[in-house]
Amino acid sequence: MSKTLFDKIWEKHVITGEVGEAQLIYVDLHLVHEVTSPQPFDGLRSTNRRVRRPDLTFATMDHNVPTKDIFNVQDQMSRLQMDTLVKNTKEFNIPLASIGDDKQGIVHIVGPERGLTQPAKVIVCGDSHTATHGAFGAIAFGIGTSEVEHVLATQTIWQVKPKTMGIKVTGKLPKNTYAKDIIMGIIAKYGVSFGVGYAIEFYGETVENLSMEARMTMCNMSIEAGSRTGMVQPDQTTFDYIEGREQAPKNFETAKEYWSQFYTDDESDFDKILTFDVSNLKPMVTWGTNPGMATAVDQYLPEIKDENDANAYEYIGLHPNMKPVDINLDYIFIGSCTNSRYEDLEIAANMMKGHHLAPNVTAWIVPGSRAIRNRAIKTGIAKIFKDAGCEWREPGCSACLAMNPDKIPAGKHVASTSNRNFIGRQGAGSRTHLASPAMVAAAGIAGHFVDITTDEFV
Amino acid sequence: MEAFVSEVGRAVVIPNDNINTDIILPKQFLKNILKTGFGKDLFYDWRYNTDGSLNEAFELNKPEHKGASILITGNDFGSGSSREHAVWALTDYGFRAVIGGGFSDIFYMNSTKNGLLPIVLPEENRKILRGIQADETIQIDLPEQTVTYKNNIFHFDINSQWKEKFINGEDDIDNTMKYEKLISAFEKQRPNFG
């Protein structure tokens, strides 16, 4: 029978239960961070339960980490969460990459980087951006805190199988447009909830030509379309990325052979198909307070259609007869599980090389992991940022969600490579404009957004 | 988990669409390491003025709505972050059910773990419910899968397993460990490439 990639992986993981009902699914990799784990570990202790498979569990610290002075945790509650994770991982014998550790970083950056993220796995984490790992052809989704406790205790999770949606991406990406623009373009076109109840697979020639880093960016933002799971079929690009990494399978050829059976037989197997052509794609920028409120950089901001739009414009301090190039910026933030991988930093650095930030712009460059940070220092990328006047920070979630000291002040506009432009997301009253790393870097130099597909840049 | 069979309660209407988990419980409150105490921070940015005083115009703060146990809202409730703290804030405040046009998948699952009943009803039903006065009640009957308000009886759908779980207030982990032999057998045949 003809099946989708999702169906094939799902079927390999069902322990009991019928399709249509909740089924018990085995979890191959459980990623843990300090914010959504204290209550689950406490629950285990109070019921005298153990962690069933500490060997399939990996913990790191990211949400609370101060990125300026990493060991100097001022916030008492942040410190408590991080200390609690140290205590819990020790007690339950779970590997932990703590602050300062070579392997520490944003959980969704570190999993792939260590080689833990592999095709055909079921991967969960108490964080909605877990979909990132789907880029490897894995079923990866965010779970709630009670589910974290359940996975710790049983290494399984009850799930109702979602429907499947194929998003076929075609066309050649214009110069200086990126995976970030594709996913933002898709969400701008189809809205922030079209994916609810579906597992998305991105496919088509454009996706096949993307790097793993770019595929991760796309899958990462599936949740911004309402879908818990975004994925891409594993291929040679995937295998090449994994090979040689610390946790890559030792019998790599056998693994590769096994992984190669996971693909969608025919696109008619999807419950629903959407299409998106990138041939004329322009860099995308959000103007409002959800990721669907985005426009191409050279377009006027949309007219006010309803109360939601009116409220968004009021909060963000813009109006419809402006273009993104008219948005004056106070901050730029390059970081987050969406766009803080080495490739992202390299693209941003190329845009900044030989230039200096516009006056009054503060720039935070936050690599996604210690390994990325070290590599960028070695290759000179860190120096490009510093020479441009940017602050070169330690790895963590930083200003993506501002649960740490990195907060954008009220009323200030920030060009951000992160994933959510919700009200107050990057600090109370902060005004977020999501865009690709190249766009954010160029905006930092100009002091406002610029169309990087014009002759001046390409 | 506290069981949910039926509920007769007063309701608060917050009709907005796209109420995400950042609105339900802003991230600065995620730092607790306990599950309790989040109710006072529910809808924080709407409930309190910037100086920390109560925003008296907000529905939840109106004295006539004190003690309401049912929340009536719009489409796409609970989108955004996976934080279960959003559900804990709703239950800690005293809500037992949320009636909306749709819920994000993760929020829905989190609700089923905490005895907060998410009910999906179409706009034409919710329009009638939005007319509820502060002293009137709504009756929710889970076994019958109905919401009753005045002379209106609305039927809602729910997966049979979630329904049973709500009615019995089951502990998920104990329930799963009934399948321990199957889990062990599964583990033995998992692919392992070293």
UniProtKB/TrEMBL annotation, chain A:
Q: How is the cofactor bound?
A: Binds 1 [4Fe-4S] cluster per subunit.
Cofactor(s) demanded: [4Fe-4S] cluster
The GO annotation for biological process reads: L-leucine biosynthetic process
Give yes or no: UniProt keyword Manganese.
Answer: no
Q: Give every Aconitase/3-isopropylmalate dehydratase large subunit alpha/beta/alpha domain span.
A: 7-447
Return the EC number: 4.2.1.33
Which pathway does it take part in?
Answer: Amino-acid biosynthesis; L-leucine biosynthesis; L-leucine from 3-methyl-2-oxobutanoate: step 2/4
Reaction equations catalysed: (2R,3S)-3-isopropylmalate = (2S)-2-isopropylmalate; citrate = D-threo-isocitrate
Query: Which PROSITE patterns does the entry link to?
Result: ACONITASE_1 (PS00450), ACONITASE_2 (PS01244)
Q: Which terms are listed as keywords in the entry?
A: 4Fe-4S, Amino-acid biosynthesis, Branched-chain amino acid biosynthesis, Iron, Iron-sulfur, Leucine biosynthesis, Lyase, Metal-binding
Any single GO molecular-function term of the entry would be: 4 iron, 4 sulfur cluster binding
The protein's superkingdom reads: Bacteria
Binding, [4Fe-4S] cluster? 337, 397, 400
Query: PANTHER family, alphabetically?
Result: 3-ISOPROPYLMALATE DEHYDRATASE (PTHR43822:SF9), HOMOACONITASE, MITOCHONDRIAL-RELATED (PTHR43822)
- Could you say which protein family the record assigns here? Belongs to the aconitase/IPM isomerase family. LeuC type 1 subfamily.
The UniProt subunit note reads as follows:
Heterodimer of LeuC and LeuD.
HAMAP family recorded for this chain? LeuC_type1 (MF_01026)
Its annotated function is as follows: Catalyzes the isomerization between 2-isopropylmalate and 3-isopropylmalate, via the formation of 2-isopropylmaleate.
What is the recorded name of this protein?
3-isopropylmalate dehydratase large subunit
UniProtKB/TrEMBL annotation, chain B:
Source organism, top-level taxon: Bacteria
Aconitase A/isopropylmalate dehydratase small subunit swivel domain mapped to chain residues: 1-123
| Catalyzed reactions per annotation | (2R,3S)-3-isopropylmalate = (2S)-2-isopropylmalate
Q: Which SUPFAM superfamilies does its entry note?
A: LeuD/IlvD-like
Entries under Pfam families matching the protein:
Aconitase_C (PF00694)
Supply one GO molecular-function term: 3-isopropylmalate dehydratase activity
Any one of the GO BP annotations: L-leucine biosynthetic process
- Matching InterPro entries, A to Z? 3-IsopropMal_deHydase_ssu, Aconitase/3IPM_dehydase_swvl, AconitaseA/IPMdHydase_ssu_swvl, IPMI_Swivel, LeuD
GO CC: one term? 3-isopropylmalate dehydratase complex
Might you give the EC number(s) for this enzyme?
A: 4.2.1.33
Named in its record, the pathway it takes part in is: Amino-acid biosynthesis; L-leucine biosynthesis; L-leucine from 3-methyl-2-oxobutanoate: step 2/4
Indicate the enzyme's highest-level EC class. lyase
Query: Which UniProt keyword terms apply here?
Result: Amino-acid biosynthesis, Branched-chain amino acid biosynthesis, Leucine biosynthesis, Lyase
- Stated family: Belongs to the LeuD family. LeuD type 1 subfamily.
Q: Which HAMAP family match?
A: LeuD_type1
Question: Which PANTHER family does UniProt cross-reference here?
Answer: 3-ISOPROPYLMALATE DEHYDRATASE SMALL SUBUNIT (PTHR43345:SF5), 3-ISOPROPYLMALATE DEHYDRATASE SMALL SUBUNIT 2-RELATED-RELATED (PTHR43345)
**Purpose:** Catalyzes the isomerization between 2-isopropylmalate and 3-isopropylmalate, via the formation of 2-isopropylmaleate.
Subunit-structure text: Heterodimer of LeuC and LeuD.
Q: What is this protein called?
A: 3-isopropylmalate dehydratase small subunit
